[in-house]
Amino acid sequence: MKKIWIGVGLACAMTLAGCGGSNAPESAKKEAAAPAAPAGGGTGVPDEANGATITGKVAFDGTKPVMKTIDMSAVPACMRAHTTPQKSEEVVVNDNNTLKNVFVWVKAGLPDQNWQVPTTAVQLDQSGCMYKPHVIGVMAGQNIEVKNDDPTNHNIHPQPTVNQDWNESQAPGSEPKMKSFPRQEVMVPVKCNIHPWMRAYIGVVSHPFFAVTGDDGTFTLKGLPPGTYTVEIVHERYGKQEQQVTVGAKESKTLDFTVKG
Amino acid sequence: MSDQDQDKDPVVHSSLSKPLYFWSALLVLSMVWGLYDEMYGIRPWKSYEARFQKLYARYLANAKVDEVTFEKQIRSAPEYRRLDGATQAAEKAAMPAASAIDKQVNQDLVPKILALNDPFQEVRSHIGSLTYEIEVSKSESRKDSLRKQIVELKNEVHKVRLPDGERPMKFAEMDQQLKDWKNEKATLLQKRVEVMKQADDLRKQRDKYLSDRIPNASADTITAVENSLANFDIRIRQIHIKDVDLVDRCESCHLGTREPVVLTPAAMGGEGVFASHPNKEMLKIHDPEKFGCTPCHGGNGVALSSVEKAHGYNKYWLWPLHHKENIDAGCQQCHAREIVTEMAGGLNDGREIFRLRGCMACHRYEGFDRDADESTSVNQQIRQLDQQKAEWLRDAGFKEQKANNPRTSDADAKKLFSEVNDLKVRSSGIDAKIEQLDMRSASLVREMKKVGPSLKEVRMKLRKEWLPVWLKDPHAWREGTKMPTFRLDDDEIKAIAAFIWQSGVQGAPLPQQKPGDPEKGKEAFETRGCMACHSMGEGAQKQGGTFAANLSREGEKANYDYLVRWVHNPRQRTLPYCAFEKKDLTAEDYQKHGQPFVFDLEHTKCPNDGHELQVQQMTPMPSLRLTEDEARDVASYLMTRKRGNATYQNADYLDDPALKNKGLDKVRFYGCAGCHEIAGLEEEQRIGTELTKEGSKPIERLDFALLGHKAEEEGWETHKGFFEHKLANPAVYDQGKEKAKQDRLKMPNFNLSKPEIDAVTTFLEGSVDASVPARYFYAPPDQRQDIIDGWWVVRKYNCMGCHRVHVAQTTIFDTLPRYQDPDWKDQKPPTLIGEGARVNPEWLMRFLNNPALSETDTNRDGVRQYLRVRMPTFSFSDGEIRKLVRFFEALSSQAQPFIAEKLEPLTDQERTMARQLFTSEGAPCLKCHMTGDPKHDVRATAPNFTVAKERLKPGWTKRWMLDPALMSPGTAMPSGLFRREADRWVFAGPTPASFNGYPKDHAELLVRYMFQFTPDELNRLRAGAGK
Fold it and tell me: What is the extent of the structural domain holding B389?
């Protein structure tokens, strides 16, 4: 019986070799190429010379809410760091009636590609028992340098939903911690269990087109490739808003948002 | 033959070559076909094997390329290169010494030992044979002569040829020399190990570095698999388990099942048949070599001729392969005594629905009536023991009589008296046993619960008009309710409602409650823990648990005064029930005996006959230890839960006595008393068929009625098909039948969703007469039995609504929007994974019995007073507490009974150090942990240290401090408080000066300090910290 098989097998093998051989290496190359890309650091960088720029501001419409005064009396070390009582940074309305600490990012519309992760770390300080700044943006995989400037122990406890939760103690005077989040997540709340009033938010984005509004309530997204984008703003109390915008090469567009208080 | 001749010859002229050619061609074709069929047609597995080999080889070649590049990357990492370099350097350094040893051993010692061994063994065996002769010889003179021979032999000088020349040696010399050389060899080899130790350690480190970074099969493994694939032969692959007579040939086609390289369908060109078993862990526990495939999966393991036959989907095969959605069905036959089986989620869901939705109230299922069955067994045991005791005492009496008889001899009398005493002592042992059983029997009265609410209380609890509306279609009124929809006509509804209303008991009038604050009540409802079992909101707005009722329309049906009582203590009963008299007792029964009308868990005896009373509502709902004000707030909130437009028609006919008897018949007919307590129907029997072995009931005994042909045509004339159709529409097999109302199928519609139907089908499909011998059944003889028993209690009271009890489980709190907020996340009830290792079991017993841990201050949680949610009082029986404690202990593999670990006492210096650390700015302990200062404690997120000593185990406490996230990911307690320094843990922050030069483990110091922590110590610390 075996002999028959060898005969039949020979004939089959020839035909099979013809079709089986050609496909395999090709698919192998594809599979090998895909996972290698992010590990290598990505390719794309924002082209600030030829790309488009979106600027805008987040206006605040309504009466300025009165923020709670933070009671640090339980921890004298925190009290001593301030001469005046600190207010919660949940809502900060600038003097020009714009909203501070709004995270702005391109939610959709970018080409399907990898972007280079900056090698510089983003700072998140614990100073006077407050997180500084209150809202930061990073790229997925980019380092966040967490420092403790206070004479007291802190713990940093981000509570992401699609990244891993971690909670680490940082003693006064100890080395800064280098941390990163591998997956896109807007926003990751950060708290300190020891000083429950401390709160920060981190927007983790898989590309470099994001910003946080500052003291003038403006933001700038530079170096975007031409295209149509959904730009979203996220605020811890007032939630999310989005707008569509189409930009061409080297074009600058203004995109203003208004948040109702 | 010439052409001319041919023309003339009729034989030649009428040629047969065409038919001959035709038939021979046919013969050849049929032979080819025959061969093909023999080799391929009836052996489809052969082509599977050929395809597998091809696809697998292709996949391996691809995988290897990636893997080699991947491993090359790892090998080029600086750490690997360092280890590799160090390994080689160490090897090189050790080599001269090692090869010197090798040379000495191999070239000198080994030849010498070999040369000496033969002559030595020869003499020794000679001596041995002479010694044996001495032992068997009978004559002393012969023995003496043999002894002499031995002495001569020992003194004889042998010329031993050694590598370095001949040497004369006596036996003793040879013996000694051989021992010396062997010792020398052993010493040298030991030395070699020491010389090479550094290099070996480094090599292990290097290899570990590599293997730690390879998630899949390594390139070496792939090469090995490729090599074995080169010798792949096409043959039947079978598992044969002799003692069970099981032959499974599944792997003749499912070739990737146990491959060392994990194969996905995508990797095998989309052919799922070649994929690896998806659960390696499962295969480890149930090794196919021991269990085969079909006992779990079903199918016909022997069949190879077609996929349909091998999978057992052909007609009359009793155990078809379980479909994907019922894959866990195979677990049930061996795990029949469990309510929770690990890794069998679908089956667990099915069992839970069967229990919780009340299927078991009409259908007996062996093992599900644990309380009732145990109760019967306990009572039977008590009777037997009573009998045994009486027998022994009677025997003792006879013996005593005989012993007292003067004609009995002293010796006999003494013997008899001792026998009498033995019997008496043994019967006293029976007393102890009966005492335990009596206690168990009383416990069991408390443990028995009903699926639905008691209908004895309807008159106090409900609005009369609501009853008929509810009966008509419970699901229309409250979507997803446990109560199923019966096929009732309006007359039946009227009669049943009237009977229920009129059979309700009448207690003393309820005290009139003042209104509460619905706003506060809402907050309490949402944060105290009610929603772990109850849901609120309808449709997409629905939030909360499914264990108990949705309360969105509670205000339409309930009586406020009753609701307040219920929220305050759901177990409070209007009248106690005496199962012996079969009667609800009233105040008069107590009066007759001059007793106050008091019945609760301290007063459980019937005044009439002393039997154990049912003094509680038979609900698993616990008391949340709310204050009366809080209960009024919650009840007031619930009373606001109603639809604005709901109207109810007058239902005064409920008081019509003429309807009562008709209603009683209907209530009996539909088996209402299976789920509800109904006055007068406490002893009703089940009305449904037993389902313990329903999955292996012969198919012809499942009544498809008029749908038989349709089922056959559509391919669902199987157990699975029968169950699915019945569960989706319990009346389905009445379709087209001409039946009188009382003959119609009674089963009501449970409005199960598709996943729920799948789960129950899984459970029923698995409920079979086992195909394997009983020794395969899961009946562990050790602590694992405690786990099986514990799960029943855990499920019964829905512990998992609040707590994570095992990994990969979410709680209701994880789903509530409020608890997604970072601040509220810390308000979730604690996880119980590892609870047995964490807490002292004696403490746990106390806590389960009284979670306030206080007799007087009950409006609190005993441990975590900062939590808004609160561990309720379940009024567990002793038996349930025992089971729960053992369950947690067993899950954490704790030895029983518990013996506390002895801790080294603190020196005065250590106490001072620990105090300083506790209050230093670097150590945040008292920031989060409760201190007893009410101002601080409202913001605390961790328990008070004063309970640690009673509550915790020291070993766990240390492990927790070192890395809490490992045990409880997401916990508020931070990691990284300690760092490793040499072989001890030291505090990671700045330590007080007193720690300078302290050589011991800091974490251990804090544990020892914590375990002698007292309230006084805490006050002292607080004072010291200036707070």
Answer: 370-447
CB A122 within 8 A of CB A142: yes
- Nearest by CB to residue B988, choosing from A75, A171, A199, is A171
Residues B554, B640: contact at Cβ < 8 Å? no
Q: Contacts of residue B264 in chain A, CB cutoff 8 Å?
A: none
B82-115 burial by CB neighbour count: b if 16+ within 10 A, else e? ebbebbeebbeebeeebeebeeebeebbeebbeb
Residue of A nearest to B68 (CA): A32
Cβ distance of A155 and B39 shorter than 8 Å: no
Which tens digits make up the pLDDT trace of B314-371?
A: 887 888 999 999 999 999 999 999 999 999 999 999 999 999 999 999 999 999 988 8
- B89 domain residue, yes or no: yes
Range of the domain at A108: 52-260
Chain B residues in contact with A166 by the CB 8 A cut-off are 965, 975
Q: Test A194 with B924 for CB contact under 8 angstroms.
A: yes
List, in sequence order, every beta strand (DSSP E) within B189-320.
Answer: 239-241, 246-248
Interface contact flag, A194 B976, Cβ < 8 Å: no
Cα nearest neighbour of B54 on chain A? A20
> Same domain, yes or no, for A192 and A244?
yes
B430 and B521 both lie in a single domain: no
Mean pLDDT in order along chain B per 10 residues (1027 residues): 60 79 95 88 89 93 88 89 92 90 90 90 92 90 90 88 86 91 93 91 90 84 89 92 91 93 90 93 93 93 92 87 95 94 94 95 92 90 94 94 93 94 94 93 92 95 95 94 95 96 92 96 96 95 95 96 96 93 93 93 91 94 96 97 91 93 95 95 92 92 93 92 96 92 92 96 94 89 94 97 92 95 91 95 96 91 92 95 97 93 92 89 85 85 91 96 92 92 91 91 94 88 66
Indicate if B430 and B524 belong to the same structural domain.
no
Interface test mutation site (partner B, options A155, A159, A192, max chain B beta carbons within 10 A): A155
Residue A253 has pLDDT above 90, yes or no: yes
Helix residue ranges, H only, B307-409: 307-310, 345-356, 359-362, 370-404
- A80 shares its domain with A139: yes
User: What's the domain count of chain A?
Assistant: 2
Number of domains in chain B: 6
Query: Is the same domain home to B933 and B851?
Result: no
Looking at the fold, whether B663 and B594 belong to one and the same domain comes out as: no
Contact criterion met (CB below 8 Å) for B802 and B812 = yes
**Are the beta carbons of B970 and A75 separated by less than 8 Å?**
no
Say if the ipTM goes beyond 0.85. no
The model's pLDDT over B164-173, given as tens digits with 9 standing for 90+, comes to 888 888 889 9
B408: left (phi over 0), alpha (psi -120 to 50) or beta: beta
Q: What is the pLDDT of residues A156-189, one digit of tens each?
A: 999 999 999 999 999 888 899 999 999 999 999 9
Distance of residue A179 Cα from the nearest chain B Cα, in angstroms? 14
The pTM of this model reads 0.85
Q: B49 to chain A nearest CA, in Å? A: 14
The answer to whether residue A45 is domain-embedded is no
Does residue B479 lie within any of the structural domains?
yes
A72/A98 same-domain check = yes
SS3 string of B46-66?
A: HHHHHHHHHHHHHHHHHHHHH
Residues of B with CB under 8 A from a CB of A: 35, 39, 54, 58, 61-62, 65-66, 69, 822-823, 825-826, 921-924, 927-928, 936, 939, 941, 964-965, 969-977, 988-990, 1026-1027
Chain A residue numbers touching B936 (CB-CB < 8 A):
74
Of B61, B823, B975, Cβ closest to residue A169: B975
| B515: CB partners within 8 A, 6+ apart | B560, B632, B636
With respect to residue A46, please indicate whether it lies within any of the assigned structural domains.
no
Q: How many CB pairs under 8 A join A and B?
A: 96
Q: Are residues A65 and A120 in the same domain?
A: yes
In chain A, what residues touch B989 (CB-CB under 8 Å)?
Answer: 153, 169, 171-172, 174
* Same domain as B624, residue B496: yes
Going from the C-alpha of B832 to that of each of A119, B544, B547, B804, the distances in angstroms are 42, 20, 19, 6
Examine the domain organization and report whether B505 and B621 are in the same domain: yes
